[in-house]
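Q: Please design a sequence for this.
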């Protein structure tokens, strides 16, 4: 009896594991949180100066609280089953959409755009909507798998096609194609673009990629892109939203690359110029933690240009490692996608990973002056409560799907198509 007990103890312990998600992501994510704490700590003096009377310790303590809440958020979503997300997706999307719409009526105005709710702490609803859009799109694309590679997504724009003969057909295309597949993207872009052009374009791009991966017809995707481009041109033509700001940024970016060097030398330096100086000063190994000079000159070193600030202090080698970490997140998501036996889970992981990595790459390109200013922060690192919490939620979902893939528990609810990624690829 004693021998059996002794033999049973290691067998029980061997089955105990606190973390069953993707192990690589389980290492990368804490590293990014640590980097966030380091660089925000270095920039608190500038933030304290910008908010007169605010103690730097209080700012850093607040950031540590946000990191702690983000970790708790990630853990909460890690234990959330995919079937629950599948069921609540339409309600979550509707709540986030109306919450984002409401910011234009009840939100705080920042740089000419209503983006925030002020509850004693700032909330940026568009960050919530980006995650909710990917969630709902993954659900709708999974449900449409039986017909999506054959159906039209956009009805005819010819009014004669809506006559008695083809009325039912066009209405079916509108309801089952446009509304179910394209409407989440269109509605999200429409409500986000007035406050944040680059975020709207990011949602449109990621949504289009997800539709492509889900086997929609290329002709239909092309028609959708053309219609959105036409709507965008009209929006710019009437001067909607922040098109003036976007136009100025494009002009400034083009001039910075095309103007003669002597002209550039005589004008005041912009944030982009200071960011490039920061990267140059950082060199290979950096000037050292807390030794940045450019942090005092860049308007928002803790958010919009945190990568250049990071390179200045820690060097280009560490900067390259940071870029690799974000690329690695996408690589791991791609691996989870391929191992998913339920398309919904795979598409959800890939969409969320695209959101995080594309936003990070945009940030890197802006910081290195390879792209015009967008205002996109660096996910999980830049200072900002809503962005960090939403990124943590997205990564928690990715880890949850990976856990269910590893445990072979990623199964669709009864009555749904429940196609696997392998079946879709075939």
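A: Design:
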């Amino acid at each position: 009896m004693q021998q059996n007990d002794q033999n049973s103890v290691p067998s029980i312990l061997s089955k105990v594991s606190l973390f069953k998600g993707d192990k690589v992501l389980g290492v990368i994510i804490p590293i990014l949180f640590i980097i966030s704490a380091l660089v925000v700590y270095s920039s608190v003096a500038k933030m304290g100066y910008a908010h007169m009377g605010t103690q730097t310790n209080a700012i850093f303590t607040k950031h540590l609280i946000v990191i702690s809440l983000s970790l708790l958020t990630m853990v909460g979503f890690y234990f959330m089953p995919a079937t629950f997300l599948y069921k609540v997706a339409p309600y979550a999307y509707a709540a986030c959409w109306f919450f984002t719409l409401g910011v234009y009526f009840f939100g705080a105005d920042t740089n000419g755009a209503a983006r925030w709710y002020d509850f004693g702490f700032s909330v940026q609803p568009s960050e919530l909507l980006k995650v909710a859009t990917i969630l709902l799109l993954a659900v709708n694309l999974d449900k449409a798998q039986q017909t999506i590679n054959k159906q039209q997504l956009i009805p005819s724009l010819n009014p004669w096609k809506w006559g008695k003969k083809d009325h039912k057909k066009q209405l079916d295309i509108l309801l089952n194609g446009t509304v179910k597949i394209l409407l989440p993207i269109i509605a999200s872009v429409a409500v986000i673009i007035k406050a944040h052009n680059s975020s709207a374009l990011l949602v449109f791009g990621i949504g289009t990629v997800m539709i492509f991966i889900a086997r929609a017809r290329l002709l239909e995707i092309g028609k959708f892109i053309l219609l959105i481009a036409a709507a965008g041109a009209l929006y710019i033509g009437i001067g909607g939203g922040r098109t003036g700001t976007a136009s100025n940024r494009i002009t400034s970016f083009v001039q910075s690359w095309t103007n003669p060097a002597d002209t550039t030398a005589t004008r005041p330096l912009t944030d982009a110029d200071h960011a490039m100086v920061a990267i140059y000063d950082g060199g290979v190994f950096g000037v050292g933690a807390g030794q940045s000079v450019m942090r005092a000159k860049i308007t928002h070193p803790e958010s919009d240009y945190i990568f250049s600030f990071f390179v200045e202090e820690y060097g280009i080698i560490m900067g390259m490692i940071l870029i690799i970490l974000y690329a690695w997140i996408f690589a791991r998501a791609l691996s989870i996608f391929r191992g998913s036996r339920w398309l919904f889970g795979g598409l959800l992981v890939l969409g969320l990973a695209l959101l995080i990595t594309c936003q990070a790459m945009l940030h890197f390109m802006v910081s290195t002056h390879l792209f015009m200013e967008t205002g996109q922060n660096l996910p999980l690192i830049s200072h900002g409560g809503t962005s960090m919490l939403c990124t943590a939620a997205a990564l928690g979902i990715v880890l949850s799907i990976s856990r269910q893939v590893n445990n072979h528990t990623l199964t669709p609810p009864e009555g749904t198509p429940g196609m696997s990624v392998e079946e879709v690829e075939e």
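Q: Thanks. Anything notable?
A: The CA atoms of residues 337 and 395 lie 14 Å apart. Residues 306-339 form the longest helix (34 residues).
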